[in-house]
């Protein structure tokens, strides 16, 4: 019997958290912020029930049959997503957003960076953040686009 070649698979898990924020850039005037962000620039903020889908990628372990233990992934997501973000004011409670506009794009980057510190190296494939049913950001760790 010949040895079986390694198989790659992607494993995804989702969580939902609630948070509020205000889209406001310190680099812009109040008028420019209002023009750019509209009602999302409300001084009192607004909230979302975010859904986050984390996908890891790796070889299927021949012994366990898993890419990763789901219990471990659940714990990493709890630490990287739920603890710092759930029921928080992103702009006031999360230091990352004191200098970065709390757009969904930047929420995805924050989650990616937080997970990268916890997960085994090279396993994180993508972070998908659903701000609403219609608005979704997918981030795969890219930093810049060469122009």
Automatic annotation (TrEMBL):
List of catalytic residues: 40, 87, 131
Free-text comment on the cofactor: Binds 1 zinc ion per subunit.
Protein name: 6-pyruvoyl tetrahydrobiopterin synthase
GO terms under biological process: tetrahydrobiopterin biosynthetic process
Function: Involved in the biosynthesis of tetrahydrobiopterin, an essential cofactor of aromatic amino acid hydroxylases. Catalyzes the transformation of 7,8-dihydroneopterin triphosphate into 6-pyruvoyl tetrahydropterin.
E.C. designation(s): 4.2.3.12
Keywords: Lyase, Metal-binding, Tetrahydrobiopterin biosynthesis, Zinc
